[in-house]
Design a protein that fits this description.
heterodimer; A: 251 residues; alpha/beta; Rossmann fold; globular; B: 551 residues; mainly alpha; 22 helices; 79% helix
Amino acid sequence: MEPALVLTGLQKSFGATVAVAGIDLEIPQGSFYGMVGPNGAGKTTTLSMATGLLTPDHGIVHVHGIDLWERPDEAKPLLGVLPDGLHTFDRLTGAELISYAGLLRGLTPDEARRRRDDLLAALDLESAGRTLVTDYSAGMKKKVALACALVHAPRVLVLDEPFEAVDPVSAGAIRRILLMFVEDGGTVIMSSHVMALVERLCDRVAIVGSGRVLAEGTLDEVRAGRDLEDRFVELVGDVEDQRDLSWLRRS
Amino acid sequence: MVAAVLSLRWRTTVNSLRRDWWRILVVVAGAIWSLSLVPSLIWAEQVLWAQLVDLRADAMIVGGSVLMLGWTAVPLLVTGLDDTLDPSRFASLGLPLRRIMPGLGIAAFLTVPALFTLLAMLLLALSWRDDAAALAVGLVGAALTVAVMVLSGRVAVAWASRMLAGRRSRAAAAVTSIAGIAIVAVAGRALLSKGLEAVLEEDVPTLITALGTTPIAAGLAAPEFASGGDWLPVVWRLGLTAAWCLLLALVWRDSVARVLVTPPARSAGVTRRDDRVLAHADVAAAIRRRLEAAAEGPFGALARGLARALPSPIVRAVRSRALRYWSSDPRYLAAAAGALVGPVLLFGILLPALGTPGWVAFVMPATVATSIGWGRHNDVAYDSTALWLDVVSGRIGREVMRGRVEAMLVWAAPVVVATSLAAVQVAGRWDLAVALSAASLGVLGTTIGVSAVLSVLMPYRAPQPGANPFGAEVGSVGAGLAAQVVSSLASVVTAPLVMVPFVLAFVVHPAWAWVATVTGLSLAVLGVALGVRLSGRLYDARSGRLLGAVV
C-alpha cells in the first residue's frame, strides 16, 4: 500500500540557523504517527513544509503519491492541517470560522452547515459557537482549529501539538475523534512534547533532534524495551550543566 | 529603571541596524538632511533678529503652531514608525507605573525628531538676544513648547488607539471623522467666501494673537512682552504652557496606566447568532440556482453568462470575512480614516486658503482614490492571521485576492463617486459628473490592482490584530520603506495617465468626456481584473514564503 506521506531529504535554513538538516520519513496509511523532539528540534518547520505552509530549501513531499509542491491543487485537499504558533483569524465566531474553512475547501453551503453543526457538537463548542474566536481560551482555539482541519474530511491529518492547552475532557473528545479517523483508514501525524500521550495513542514514532531523525519505527522498536521518555532523553541528551539553583530554596 | 528603558531602546535600534545594514543608509541620510537644515535655521534666526519685535513673535507663533499640528497629526497618519516603547509591551512585566514612566518619558524626548525640533526652536529663540531677559524667556518658552509638542503626539496616539480599540470604536471613529470634515468644510468655506487677502488682513492677526494665548504658542508669544518690560503676560503665558505640559504628562501617564492593565484584542463580548459566512453563501447559491433555471428560458444566453460571472463560493467566503475586518478591526478603520484625512485636509483647507481656482477640485477624487488604493499595498500582511487557512486550503490565490479586493470596493467605490460628485459641485461643472466619477474609478481600480500585486510581492510586517493600530512590528520599518516607495511610485505614475482623457475633456473639448467615461470604467475593470489575476498567481507561487514574510 502506498504511504500516506513521504518526506524525502527535507532541508530548511533561516539565515545561518539550520532548522531542518535533512529529514526522511515514510508514514504508512492508517497509522497514528507521533513526532517527538526537544524544543527547537525542527518539528514545526518540518510539519510546515509537509503541509505547504513553508517552501523547503531542498527535498520533496508526497501525499498519497502526489508531489505536494508540484501539484498542490491535488495534494492539499487530502491534507487536514492544524498549525502551532500561528494566529487564527479571530474576528469570526467559532461557527463562522468552521463554515469559512468548509467553503474554502469547496463544500456547498448546505454541506458546510451540516458538518459545522456536527463538529461544534462533537468538540463541545456549541455554546461557544456564537462567540468571536478572539474571546476563546487557548484550548478552545485549538479545538476550533481542529474542526477547521477536519471539515473537508481529509485523508491525512497533520497536527502540530494538538493537545496543548486542552483540558482533559476535551482531550478525550479529540482522542476519540482521531482514533475513529485512524480506524476508518485515515492517517494522523502529530507532534507532541508529552511522551505519555504519544505512547498511549501512536503506533509509530519518530524522535527528531537538531533537524534530523534520531530514531524511527513502531512504538516498540523505538522504545527498545524501555520507557519512551528514557529513550528520548538518551537520544537527545540531557541538560549538560545540572546546576543547583540554591537561591530558589526557601531555607 | 530609566537606564534600563533607555538601554532597551538603544539595543533594539542597534540590533535592527545590524540585521538590515541598509537601514544605516536611511539613518545617515536622515542625519545629513537634518544637519543640512542647520545653516538655514541659522539664517532664519538672523532674519528674525533683524525684524521688529512683534513680527518676530508672530513668525515664531505661526511656525510653532504648524509644528504643533505636525507633532499631533503625523503620528496618527504615518503609522509604523517605531513601537519599541509601546507601553503595552511592558504590560507583562508587572512593573509599577511610577518606575516605568520616567524611562518612557525621557525616551519620548530622546528621538531624532524631538531633539531636532528642540534644537531648531532654541536656535530660533536666540533671535531675542538683544535683551537678556527676553532671551531667557524665549529659551524657556521654546523648550516648554517643544515639550508640549512631544507630549501631544504621545497623547494623540494613546487616545486614538484607545478610541479605536473599544466597543464603540466604529461609532467613535465615524463621529470624529464627520466632525473633522465638518470643521474643515466650514473653515474652507469661510476662507473661500472672503477671499485670501481679506483673510490675511483681518482674520490671521486675530488668529495669531489668539494662538499666543493658548498652550499651543503661549510660550512663543511670551518674549515679546518680556522685551517690552510687561511681566504679567509673560508669567501667565509661561505658567499656562508649563501647566499644560504637566496636564498632558498626567493624561499620558493615565493612558499608560490603563494600557498596562488592559489586555489588547478584546471584542467586548460580542456574540453573533447568525453565521454571516454561510448566509452570504446561501444567497449566492440561491442566485445561482435561479440563473441556472433561467438558462433554459428565452434569455438563456444572458443567464448563463451571468452565472459564469458570479463569484465562486470561495470568493464570497473571503469577501464576507474581509468585510468583517473592515467593519470591526481598528487597524483597518484607522487605515481607511487615514486614507481620507490627507486629501480632505489638502482640498478642504490648504488649497482654498491659497485661493486656487475651482478646477483644482477635480484632482481631489483621484487623490482620494490613489490614497485608498495605495493604502492596501501591505494587505496580505495585515490579513496575516487568515493566511495559513487560505494557504492550506489549496491553490486558491485568485479567489482569495478577488474576495479581498471586492470587500474593499464595497466601501471604496461609493466613497470615490461621492468625492467626484462633491468636486463637480465645487467646480460647478455637473456636465462632467459622469466622466469624473468614471475616471476616478479608473484610478481606484488601477491603484488597487497595483497594490494587490505588491502586497503579495513585497509584504512586510504589520501590526497584529488587536495590537496598537498606529504601531509597527519592531523590524518592519526598513522592508516597509522599500515597499512603500515602490508602491507609491507605481501609483503616482499610473494615476495621472488614467486621468488624461478627463483632462482633455476639461481643457480641449467636452466630447472627450465620453472617452474619459469609457476609458475610466474599462481601466477600473481591467486594473482590478489584472491585479487580481496576477496577484493570485503570485500568491500561489509564493504561498510557501508569504507566512515567513509576515508572521
